Amino acid sequence: MAFIVTCPLHAVCNILSLNEAEQLIRKLTRPIVETTRLIEQNLQLAKEYAKDISENPELAHQGLPQKNATSDHLRYPTTICTNRKCCRTVILIKQFLSCLVGICSKCGCLWNDHQHITYEVKTDIRYLKEASSASDIATQIKNLKEEKIKIEEVYKKLAKYLHANAILPLHDDIIEYFRLCIKQEQMRKACGDQNNEVIQGLEHLMEEYKEEINLFK
Predict the structure, then answer these.
(1) Contact at 8 Å (CB) between 176 and 112?
(2) From 130-134, 165-169, 188-192, 207-211, the region with the lowest mean pLDDT
(3) DSSP code string of 165-206
(4) Are 64 and 42 in contact (CB under 8 A)?
(5) Strand, helix or coil at 94?
(6) Percent of the chain scored above 90 by pLDDT?
(7) DSSP E strands, the chain
(8) How far lies 184's CA from each of 81, 181, 194, in Å?
(9) Is the pLDDT reported for residue 86 higher than 70?
(10) Cys-Cys with 128: which of 64, 105, 165, 181 at CB 3.0–4.6 Å?
(11) CA distance readout (Å), 176 to 5, 112, 131, 133, 214
(12) What is the pTM of this model?
């Protein structure tokens, strides 16, 4: 108590500002990781297209396939199950009442297999007619890699800020969402998707992020 009395006063507004910053950064977790996944998917598409036109130049007229993402905001927050055995979305209106001892009574999966979402990310394929030559594809791959590096720098800086200024130990949301995205891609692979490069890219980014944050701690 004597030590506390000697401590200088701390402005409450500073704590409130830090809390607002923390909430904002946590909200950015999903958009950041989803954007990173989209870049990995487009990198794989570009590399596959470059290989295809080198073997069959007639395919060049189709244009470079690239995924475009849009967000569809839900009418109300939704809880979905991300377990491998759940192949459909299970909407839980009263999720807390439907959960007993950590087991969801709707699907039988653990509570930590579930995720709360307020919007869905939908992707569609567009074809870039202006990027049909080998040099155009190489430029697109270069641009995607540069964009990925910039996004990595952003989320690492945000995470370092939280670790440096948080009063309580932080649960790293970015790592958890990386794991979720990797799990989703692995489920797609099990269904026949050829997405090895996407999975490897996400795993590599997650490990790089963990190593850098551990050094910072």
Answers:
(1) no
(2) 165-169
(3) H-SSPPP-HHHHHHHHHHHHHHHHHHTT---HHHHHHHHHHH
(4) no
(5) coil
(6) 20
(7) 64-81, 99-100, 103-104, 114-128
(8) 11, 5, 13
(9) no
(10) 64
(11) 40, 10, 35, 39, 15
(12) 0.76
Indicate the average pLDDT of the chain.
78
CA distance 83 to 101: 17
pLDDT at 30 over 70: yes
| Dmax (CA) of the chain | 81
Q: For residues 107 and 49, what is the distance between their CA atoms, to the nearest angstrom?
A: 40
Residue range 118-143, pLDDT digits in tens: 778 888 999 988 777 888 899 999 99
What separation in angstroms does the CA of 108 have from each of 18, 124, 187?
38, 32, 19
Cα 182 from Cα 176, distance rounded (Å): 10
Measured CA to CA, the distance from residue 132 to residue 60 in angstroms comes to 5
